């Protein structure tokens, strides 16, 4: 895999992706952050050697390099999910490439359903810890030890200093920011009532279909990592209604300005 990573990183360096400091994965709720960027270079995923390509219509597929709050950033506009048929190595490949280009910090956003019924849709949740229910690990492949320590410590997968900064920023800007445990499932189907009950018993505050593989690999690469969820629906098994994707996207859009403030102010402080 190292050969492929080097090849991809060299291609991007030749395109002008020059020593970025921070990698950002734009999940749901952070799409408009690109409007805040001074864009220096951008490349479609399908032009990048060895890169997976995006298949979801509301996920764009571009790697963007630019300046945000005075920092050099590399932004993934569109991420990969195992429910699209990718392997966990595919899903996390861009994180390895961003590290090869020079990032020291990875910031992630996503959409999730609120299992904790004290949390309401349209609010944000800072991920403090996670439960991996995706059935495997992005580190479970032959030769992984050539890229980093095989047995990665996960006692604090989300950087405590960054999380503390996020909380301080939220308080200063009067943004409601919950903190909790994110469970990552395969999808793409939503959960049954029984599955929501199981997740609650397990200690999950929110559930989604992404983020955990990228965070595991960030830890494998000794990157500082943090993630924030937009809570797009409330998962009450006793009053469960059919899912409405339009409403979910509307909730993410509603939360977006707050998410952008959090990320911009954080990057300013890094």
From TrEMBL:
InterPro entries referenced in this protein's UniProt entry, alphabetically: Nucleoside_phosphorylase_d, Nucleoside_phosphorylase_sf, Purine_phosphorylase
Enzyme Commission no: 2.4.2.1
Pfam families: PNP_UDP_1 (PF01048)
SUPFAM superfamilies for this protein: Purine and uridine phosphorylases
Record keywords, A-Z: Glycosyltransferase, Transferase
Uppermost EC category: transferase
CDD domains xrefs: PNP-EcPNPII_like
Pathway info: Purine metabolism; purine nucleoside salvage
Any one GO biological process: nucleoside metabolic process
GO cellular component: cytoplasm
Any GO MF annotation of the entry: purine-nucleoside phosphorylase activity
Domain Nucleoside phosphorylase: 21-268
Function text: The purine nucleoside phosphorylases catalyze the phosphorolytic breakdown of the N-glycosidic bond in the beta-(deoxy)ribonucleoside molecules, with the formation of the corresponding free purine bases and pentose-1-phosphate.
Recorded family membership: Belongs to the PNP/MTAP phosphorylase family.
Name of the protein described by the UniProt record: Purine nucleoside phosphorylase
Organism: Subsaximicrobium wynnwilliamsii
């Amino acid at each position: 895999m190292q050969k492929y990573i080097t090849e991809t990183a060299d291609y991007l360096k030749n395109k002008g992706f020059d020593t970025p400091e921070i990698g950002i994965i734009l999940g749901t709720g952070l799409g408009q952050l690109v409007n805040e960027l001074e864009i220096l270079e951008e490349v479609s995923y399908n032009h990048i050697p060895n890169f997976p390509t995006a298949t979801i219509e509301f996920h764009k597929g571009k790697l963007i390099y630019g300046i945000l709050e005075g920092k050099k950033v590399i932004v993934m506009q569109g991420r990969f999910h195992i429910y699209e048929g990718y392997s966990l190595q595919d899903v996390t490949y861009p994180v390895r490439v961003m590290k090869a280009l020079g990032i020291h910090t990875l910031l992630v956003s996503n959409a999730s359903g609120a299992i904790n019924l004290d949390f309401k849709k349209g609010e944000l949740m800072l991920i403090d810890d996670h439960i991996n229910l995706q059935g495997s690990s992005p580190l479970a492949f032959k030769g992984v030890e050539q890229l980093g320590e095989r047995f990665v410590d996960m006692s604090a997968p989300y950087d405590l200093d960054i999380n503390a900064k996020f909380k301080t920023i939220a308080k200063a800007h009067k943004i409601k920011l919950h903190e909790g445990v994110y469970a990552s499932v395969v999808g793409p189907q939503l959960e049954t009532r029984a599955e929501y009950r199981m997740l609650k018993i397990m200690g999950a505050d929110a559930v989604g279909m992404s983020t955990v593989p990228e965070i595991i690999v960030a830890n494998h690469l000794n990157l500082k990592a943090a993630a924030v969820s937009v809570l797009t629906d409330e998962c009450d098994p006793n009053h469960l209604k059919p899912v409405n994707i339009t409403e979910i996207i509307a909730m993410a859009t509603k939360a977006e300005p707050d998410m952008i403030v959090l990320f911009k102010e954080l990057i300013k402080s890094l």
